[in-house]
Amino acid sequence: MAFSPSSLILTNYFLPLSEALCFKESMKINSIPMFIGVIISFIAIWLVNDYFFVDQCLDNGGSFDYSKGECSLANGDIKVPEIGKYLIAIYFFMGILISLFVSFSIRKLFNIEQ
Length: 114
Known about the structure:
This protein is mainly α. It has one domain. Helix content is about 65%, strand content about 5%. It has a three-stranded antiparallel β-sheet, with helices on one face. Helix 2 packs across helix 3. It is elongated, with a radius of gyration of 25 Å. The mean pLDDT is about 80.
């Protein structure tokens, strides 16, 4: 009987990899709370963005142009929020924190193991 290195490679690398890539029932259940958390974080970011830009613009007597994302005041000036350059970082961290909080809360509420 001859030694075949290809059979050794298949045994050591392919079989454990194929078992690792198989979806199990627990993997499907574990991904649902994180998905719900991400959706809720998107909704929260949308509501916070609406509050920061649109409501403050309308409260100052301006009109908000949704296509450009600008606030035009009554005197013709364009208002830019002071926090505008930091919003991407704020939304990123806010999204991560909200999605993790919601995910862990759902797992705790429904006793889903990680």
